[in-house]
Amino acid sequence: MTDLTKLTLAEARDGLAGKQFTSSEITNAYLGAIDGANGALNAYVAVGYDKARTMAKASDDRLAQGKGGALEGVPLGIKDLFATEGDHTQACSRILDGFHPPYESTVTSNLWADGAVMLGKLNMDEFAMGSSNETSAYGPVRNPWRADGATTDLVPGGSSGGSATAVAAHLCVAATATDTGGSIRQPAALTGTVGIKPTYGRCSRWGVVAFASSLDQAGPVTRTVQDAAIMLKSMASLDKKDSTSADVPVPDFEAAVERGVKGLTIGIPKEYRMDGMSDEIEALWQDGIAMMKDAGAEIRDISLPHTKYALPAYYIVAPAEASSNLARYDGVRYGLRETGRDITDLYEKTRAAGFGAEVKRRIMIGTYVLSAGYYDAYYLRAQKVRTLIKRDFETVFDDGIDAILTPTTPGPAFPIGDNEHHADPVKMYLQDVFTVTVNMAGLPGIAVPAGLNAQRLPLGLQLIGKPFDEETLFAAGRVIEKAAGRFTPERWW
Amino acid sequence: MSVDIDTVHRVAHLSRIALKEGEAERMTSELNAILGFVEQLSEVDVEGVEPMTSVRPMAMRRRDDEVTDGGKADDIVKNAPATEDHFFMVPKVVE
Fold first, then answer.
1. Domain, as residue range, for A258
2. Which of A117, A421, B15, B19 has a CA 20 to 30 Å removed from the CA of A272?
3. Contact (CB, 8 A) for A71 and A116
4. A334 inside 8 A of chain B by CB
């Protein structure tokens, strides 16, 4: 039999439905692959061998009866941010030590209802705060990509670094991920995978550990654009348990993948040509423009004047929401507890021991910008700037732009422990400079691998769409994928 | 605007995070780096701009006022570090 872990989601789904192999076979192939790779890559923080095999067996029974769902028997990895009943669910933080939720997130419920199989929980930056997967309490994830001829370990990006590495290294067919400022798209770009952050409200946030509630969205990381379309269809739903989940129909995204871009107008925002943009990113962007033109799209230069203010506004809004959301970790109701001489001492010692440095930094920034005397100057101003950022996008979409093409990240994967990114927190934050605007405006954005740089590391392009028009992003993303090809790392682990 | 070490101690207390020896100094410089970065927002003209409250226009959905969930006391205390008879146990709060 061919190596089942090499199949795309679409191929695995079709092979299972066509009874070419069983879910138990492909699930065991992945469990074996995880055993052989996780020591080196650290993508999984918990592997559910028994549960996976039980779910696979149930899928095989349903497939035998011809009752298979849309993802029947397909083994997936789940980011540790999603609550899965009775399993490890810690947002990769020490403060949730031992937490096993007695409930299931809506997104994962949807996936299991469609027949998918869970392999385990994936590593991530603590509480999804980070761009390198180095803030995890479980240690960094290694990128399966290395520079040509080098042995330096690179980051997979973050916060969904475990998801991106697991998909790129074939340790799951596809993975769930979440994106608050770029946490799906940036790791997808750094690992040569596809990632889509759908429109805010497309996927329910219920049962997803909250970071910044007005920005958080779930989405998939996959090996192809078609796979992302299949995953998103299953993940998305209207959910009574999340009042911000959108009451809009979920289209058959897969049907839009081969639609092409003929007749569409693709905007190229001049403000994304930042000072100091590297030649390789500039060249990649030009390649992307050529791919769109060749496929029949019209290219138009556009202006999104408030682009440069998106990242600073994000670093007020997101920490403010985080400081509020993370107030619940108090050492009383779940997770870690440190003893204290009184209740305040217990809170302070528990939170000091349970949170890592980046999470503490963001809680404190958030507390400061919301505190008396600073609220207007920081938080209220940032929310006004957010209105302006959204207005920029509305203006270009009203002028006939169908989608916007930009780079995904300012550069390729960088080394684990890289001094430049650790000496100054702002330097790390700049990883999200091209992706964060999309979260601030609630829009959908897809990252598609578009080429390798001179060191043979993957680089990605991003497409930004109108609200609830993920279909155009899948169609345009597929154009890039067709022109650029797919990229798989050479195994060193 | 920038913060001094006393402000960092005050914000840490508001955040209910105990700072270790030396941590306050490091945090002061890190917070000031971030506050320096966000300072550029002061150049934006926000006169007459409404602050965003929701990324898309939406009315809050309503539902009938009826009990739809509950009776899960076991589940609720299941993950607690210390419980007794469905109560969360904490150090003495009131003398």
1. 1-493
2. A421
3. yes
4. yes
pLDDT tens profile A339-377 = 999 999 999 999 999 999 999 999 999 999 999 889 999
AA letter at A62 = R
Q: Are A88 and A121 in contact (CB under 8 A)?
A: yes
Distance separating alpha carbons of residues A320 and A306, to the nearest angstrom:
21
Interface check for B85 against chain A (CB to CB < 8 A): the answer is no
Taking only the tens place, the pLDDT of each residue in A48-83 is 999 999 999 999 999 999 999 999 999 999 999 999
Cβ contacts of A388 on chain B, cutoff 8 Å: 44, 46, 49
Q: Domain spans of chain B?
A: 5-41
pLDDT for the residue A282: 97
What number of C-beta contacts closer than 8 Å exist between A and B?
A: 166
What CATH number matches the domain at B5-41, 1.10.20, 1.10.3470, 3.40.630, 1.10.287?
1.10.20
- B41–A467 CB contact, under 8 Å: no
Q: Domain tally for chain A?
A: 1
The pLDDT, as a whole number, for residue A1 is 53
- A365: closest CA of chain B, how far (Å): 7
Q: Whole-angstrom Cα distance, residue A234 to residue A220?
A: 10
Q: Check residue B19 and report its DSSP letter.
A: P
Question: pLDDT tens across A10-24, in order?
Answer: 999 999 999 999 999
Sign of CA dihedral A5, A224, A181, A457: positive
CATH number for the domain that contains residue A489: 3.90.1300.10
- Chain B interface disruption, residue of A350, A351, A365, most B CBs within 10 A: A365
Distance between A406 CA and the closest CA of chain B, angstroms: 22
Q: What percent of chain A has pLDDT over 90?
A: 96
Looking from the CA of A402 toward its CB, the CA atoms found within 13 Å total 18
Q: Which residues of A are catalytic?
A: 79, 159, 183
Interface test with B, best of A367, A420, A469 (most B CBs within 10 A): A367
- Report pLDDT digits (tens) over A235-294: 999 999 999 999 999 999 999 999 999 999 999 999 999 888 899 999 999 999 999 999
Q: Tell me which chain A residues have a C-beta less than 8 angstroms from the C-beta of B30.
A: 361, 425
